[in-house]
Amino acid sequence: MTEVKREVFGQMPREEGGGVVEKFVLKSDSVKVEILSLGCIIAALETKGRNGEFADVVLGFDTLEGYTGKHPYFGAVVGRVANRIAKGRFTVDGKEYQLFLNNGPNSLHGGAKGFDKVLWSPEVLPNGVCFYRLSPDGEEGYPGDLKVWVTYTLSGGELAINYRAQTSKTTPINLTNHAYFNLAGQ
After folding, report:
1. What DSSP line would sit under 132-177, residue for residue?
2. 2, 93, 105, 140: least CB-packed within 10 angstroms?
3. What is the C-alpha R_g of the chain?
4. Is it the case that residue 159 has pLDDT exceeding 70?
5. Cα(144)–Cα(84) distance, integer angstroms
6. pTM for the structure as a whole
7. Burial (0-12, 13-18, 19+ Cβ within 10 Å), 163
8. Does pLDDT of 104 surpass 80?
9. 3-state class (DSSP) for residue 129
10. Residue 174, class by beta-carbon neighbours within 10 Å (0-12 exposed, 13-18 middle, 19+ buried)?
11. Nearest to 87 by CA among 19, 141, 25
């Protein structure tokens, strides 16, 4: 049986759009995961070690300020496209698109304000949480309205992440979670 708790984690600064950041805690007998509505971030993932004690095995921050500052995408969903797009340019259906450059001459993990830096709309499920957002046509230079759903579910000792996207135009998409693991615990 998975327990799902919802609580306020903090308030986004006004200059970053404001809004309440929520934390969702999914807990089973052997795993506890904390997920934020900001960037669908996995803020903590605790699992039992050999000694039966829980240890957090992902890197992250205890406060919202850590996630709103500069960091290496700790635990976040990155996109529209994870990784680098050289020179921030691509061609689809004969049309060239120029993306925002945020990694030297390249576009990295969705640009200046990728999926990791925005608030997502959550829906609590019996064994998890589903986050939704609409990335509008032209956001960071990408074509098409893109509806995205990221669902986290916890069943016993298994955490699953499911990605679903629907677009109004042909567009590149490559979503992933950018968690950093330290299996020895923090």
Report:
1. EEEE-TTGGG--S-EEEEEEEEEETTEEEEEEEEEESS----B-EE
2. 93
3. 17
4. yes
5. 20
6. 0.95
7. middle
8. yes
9. strand
10. middle
11. 141
Q: Is the peptide bond before 80 cis (omega within 30 degrees of 0)?
A: yes
For position 51, what pLDDT does the model report? 85
Distance separating alpha carbons of residues 160 and 2, to the nearest angstrom: 13
- Cβ atoms of residues 142 and 135 within 8 Å: yes
Topology of the domain comprising 3-181: Beta-galactosidase; Chain A, domain 5 (2.70.98)
3 state DSSP class of 186: coil
Q: What is the pLDDT of residue 126?
A: 95
| Residue spans per domain, the chain | 3-181
Specify whether the CB–CB gap between 87 and 97 falls below 8 A: no
Residue 54 neighbours by CB under 8 Å, 6+ apart: 32, 46, 47, 48
